Amino acid sequence: MERECMEFDVVIIGAGPAGLAAACQLMLMAKQQNTPPPSVCVLEKGTEVGAHILSGAVFETRALDELFPDWEHTDAPIVSQVTGNHLYWLTNANNHLVVPEHLAPDCMNNNGNYVISLGLLCRWLAKQAEQLGVEIFPGFAASDICYDNNNAVTGVITSDMGRDKQGQEKSTFEAGIELKAKYTIFAEGSRGHLGKQLIAHYHLDNNKSPQHYALGLKELWKIPAEQHHEGLVIHGMGFPLSESDTTGGSFLYHFEGNHSEEKYVAVGLIVDLNYHNPYLSPFDEFQRMKHHPVFAQYLHCGERISYGARAITKGGLSSLPRQQFHGGLLIGCDAGTLNFGKIKGSHTAMKSGMLAAQAIHDELTAGFAHTVPGYERLFHDSWLYQELYQSRNVGANIHKYGQLFGGMLTSIEQNWLKDRATWTLHDNLPDHLSLKPLAKCKPITYPKPDGMLSFDKPSSLYLSGTQHEENQPCHLLLTDPMLPITSHLAENGEPSQYYCPAGVYEIIGDTGQERLVINAANCLHCKTCDIKDPSQNITWRPPEGGGGPNYPNM
């Protein structure tokens, strides 16, 4: 098939914090060193920058301080500084214990941080990038990687547009574009489909622990002014996940909107995807969580205005794959640079993008193309590596010893032992193998939503702005279409019908005549199915560019 071709020095996949920081740094370095600016293109599969961005988010400005030292004197959407930081152990549906500050891990201290909308920050970063000369193409999904005869990455191909459900060309058909680059940076976010291919193709995860993930669910609420405390940060552990022996945590952050009279809270639940009970529904756990008095006191009489969900890569340093290869780099959450101890990944993603830009700038300045960028040395010499090293045991502590005792061990390591904690723990069981058989688990009965604090999936999905072209090939591919019924249904109840936060997967039909229905148009692009399917039978591929959620400021 003939394709239109465009050539750039650098192509970046994903307009998140990592990709945009890389784009800005490339242009800034050329300007600072008085060298010709590279041609840089950023592909974004959402309808606009920020449409697919979802994060808590309590933001540490360390990387932004380096990238744009004068950001405080600009219109950057960073205004709500943290004013209070509370950690609770939720003992049951109604009670809680306050965790004293001196017992909480030092890494959870949020003094000097800000409560932000990461989507708005990415839109601001995109504006800075464009002013520096970067080209940003929203609505284009990168579907395939291009390699040369020397096995080096030479660019990507965007998704075809205008194919029907059978894959045939419609009257509106447009072939995908080939984007050639001297270097390609992959910054797709957690469980990026191209990043997944690169890790397998180049064996980037050799001698590494399996990667681990969580599912983050979030809602944005507008609340009465008398219930609002700008900058208040609340984290919770325990209920409701402790009732199913599952780890994770809850959060509620207070911040102001674009106008001072707009009072918002971001509320959410993070569910570790190494959970055991196939009946567990992260969505329903989240809805149940909001009824706890710690959260309900702020949400009563409020208005829910947005909902979304996204996977989080949280394996840490032990699971971090090699990030460089011939012709490119894998950065941010696509690789797994989140600091699980801090529960933050935006500043680390930005720093990984800035280091990637420096490595590629050095190669371009030397006149090279398709070589292996010298990223690893820069990474090991950076504060990013030091952060990830200091928090390397947080996830393994919790996975091995549970939320309470694992958290206590983390506090001992972080607060008292510090550099004397020289050991490294590993969790070698992949998340998709952690499910127990149905017969060994108790069914979970979730209360019906009350329409005030808790809601159903259809009404929640509506608030995500999710839209897809209906007449296109299904982007959720089953290696064996029969496996969900012939194997998973009896063994673990076909868990996709429970773990999907958007109701994409449904089992319908009478006993003995069941079949799996995939409602692909509902997909939030969270990637949980690609991660948690017990047989790794589901592969997430990008639908037509522009499809998916349309988050306004998540």
UniProtKB/TrEMBL annotation:
Residues 514-543 form the 4Fe-4S ferredoxin-type domain. Gene3D superfamilies: 3.30.70.20, 3.30.9.90, FAD/NAD(P)-binding domain. GO terms for molecular function: 4 iron, 4 sulfur cluster binding; electron-transferring-flavoprotein dehydrogenase activity; metal ion binding. It catalyses: a ubiquinone + reduced [electron-transfer flavoprotein] = a ubiquinol + oxidized [electron-transfer flavoprotein] + H(+). Its EC number is 1.5.5.1. It comes from the Bacteria. It is found in: Membrane. Binds 1 [4Fe-4S] cluster. Keywords: Electron transport, FAD, Flavoprotein, Iron, Iron-sulfur, Membrane, Metal-binding, Oxidoreductase, Transit peptide, Transport, Ubiquinone. GO terms for cellular component: membrane. It holds the Pfam family ETFQO_UQ-bd. It is an enzyme of class 1 (oxidoreductase). Its cofactor is FAD; [4Fe-4S] cluster. Accepts electrons from ETF and reduces ubiquinone. PANTHER family: ELECTRON TRANSFER FLAVOPROTEIN-UBIQUINONE OXIDOREDUCTASE, ELECTRON TRANSFER FLAVOPROTEIN-UBIQUINONE OXIDOREDUCTASE, MITOCHONDRIAL. This is Electron transfer flavoprotein-ubiquinone oxidoreductase. It comes from Photobacterium swingsii. The lineage of its organism: Bacteria, Pseudomonadati, Pseudomonadota, Gammaproteobacteria, Vibrionales.
